[in-house]
Amino acid sequence: MTIIKKIGSKLNRESKYLLRDVKYKLGLTDNFYRAARGSRIMVYHGICQEDHLRFNPIFLKRDTFELHLKFYKKYFNVISLDDYYNQRFSNNRFNICITFDDGFANNYKYVLPLLEQYKVPATFFVTAIRSVDCDVLWNDFLGIVSKYGPDKIVYKDEPYYKGRFDKYISAVSGISLVESLHFSGFGEKAEMMKILYPLVPFKTNKQEEDYWLQMTTEQIKELSASPFVTIGAHGHYHNDLAKISIRDAEDELIFSKKYLENIIGKPVNSCAFPYGTYTEQVIDAAKKNRLPKTSCNRFSFSYGPKRLNDARALYG
Ligand SMILES: [Zn+2]
Asked: What is the CA(68)–ligand 1 centre distance, in A?
């Protein structure tokens, strides 16, 4: 096991521990957390009122997230992304930087009021998906359809069946649909959404919007107006920047930065790469295009069986 993997696995254990037993641990490990020193960026995604495993295993319940905030306030300094990158850390406590990936409308609905209530900063990495009148990320879409759709489908004359983790696997190539789409541009993904939507018309159920709906431009603007909020870029279409051409990846970085700056009326100088994947070239492209605060040494919280391992390299 490499050192980075060891660190990753230790952090995952800690995150599991912290999450599942946050209340319980508060009483028992008081001294441990008080004595901790260092810094960490925490990666969150969606927040919902109930049943956080219903659509996406990386969601958390609002009440659980509130417990995290109480926990952080009690034991740690909660610092902004700017302070994190400028190494403005306190040495008398552990330092936590809260971030959210993906730009879910539930961030605006549930997280913003909590940040204001507890007076803690957070950064939201948002895509530019609304620029193409799309209200859901392609991967969330496919995740929902794969989970609730039929066991077998025919997509573009190719048969697919449900394999491990409810992924549609091609009977011809053995490759999952989600994996093959990682290498495609947005056009193909948009087509996929059009073709597969009738299988699981989930948008008709407004009560379940928390699980997939993206923020509107107005919500991004309002979120950004809070003194506790920083907005960062997360690509244009939530494409995997390490798997598309570097030219397209660079275009996405440039477009998403300008798009967000236009909405919020402030500079956007940070980005988190979708899926946490990147190449040296992608990092260079981000830096070249005035996105100096790219990806980071961070790990993500996730509940449920499909854990997201996320100890990332440090690029400041
Ligand atoms: Zn993402």
From this structure: 21
